[in-house]
Amino acid sequence: MLGDQKLEEGDYYLSPEGYKVFTEQYHLKRGYCCESGCRHCPYGFNQPKKRH
């Protein structure tokens, strides 16, 4: 788990809105899927679609 490790170059980028977006590199270093539907999830988690 990356709890005590510092972020490195390539672990994230800033979206146009200013949000920190974690990359596949970061997720692989973390070593597990949080099942939050992350944009760059390398573990294949697909968040269920909301029905309207």
How would you describe what is shown here?
The protein is mostly loops. The chain has one domain (1-52). The protein is built from one helix and two strands. It has one helix at residues 24-30; strands spanning 12-14, 20-22. A two-stranded antiparallel ribbon has the order 1-2. Strand 1 (12-14) and strand 2 (20-22) form a beta hairpin. It is globular and about 40 Å long. The model has no long low-confidence stretch (mean pLDDT 88).
Q: What is shown here, in short?
A:
The chain has one helix spanning 24-30, and strands at 12-14, 20-22. The protein is largely without helices or strands.
Number of domains: 1
What is the string of SSEs from the N terminus onward?
Answer: EEH
Taking the alpha carbons of the first and last residues, their distance comes to: 37 Å
Mean pLDDT, all residues? 88
Features of this protein?
52 residues; single chain; little secondary structure; 1 helix; globular; two-stranded antiparallel ribbon
Task: Draw up the topology in text.
Blueprint: E1 12-14, E2 20-22, H1 24-30
